[in-house]
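Justification of computing resources. Each target in the renewal requires a structure prediction run like the one illustrated here; the chain below, 212 residues long, is used simply to show the kind of job we budget for.
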Amino acid sequence: MKNIRLGLLALGLALPLLGHAAPVDDAVAELQRDWEVIRYQAPASERVKRFEALAEKAHQVSSTHAGRSEPLVWEGIIVSSLAGEKGGLGALGLVKQAKALYEQAIAIDGQVLDGSAYGSLGVLYYKVPGWPIAFGSKAKAEDMLKKALALNPTGIDPNFFYGEFLIENERTAEGISHLERALQAAPRLGRAVADAGRREEIRALLAKVKGS
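Resulting structure tokens:
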């Protein structure tokens, strides 16, 4: 079940820093900052409990701002991260919960946050096992990842997610092309930590693929 763990923790990197035009934006931006602190600064031994608490907080934000897609996407990100920390069969319920959250967000506004709901859902589809254990599907993964890429063709995360998917499915040349495109993405305002982490992942994957 290690595929459930791999990749899920990084989903939160997909989202740009939100502005402060409305209370919902402030609340979601706070969730994002809290996620980054846990993901990059908290000791590994503390992450499960802290992500559990943050998931509860995210659910409160989603409930308070019912009808808005942004909190649902971020609640999904946090639940996915919690699943990544737990791993194994114990993560299956969490990834199913995250899937439902992304689907709710897409039903409201699939273009929200530059298509991040599509990209995050696509990652779930290719990271989790298929039937009868879970809902994993290469075909659905590619469909979701392509939708995210169409909405943000030069973005670092949609190119990384699709590139990783292609490489895992032995479409190496295509995958490398998207990873290299991801490295060329413009820095995101207020996301220096996220960008640095993503670029490190991209370079590590490129080195692994090109060295094999």
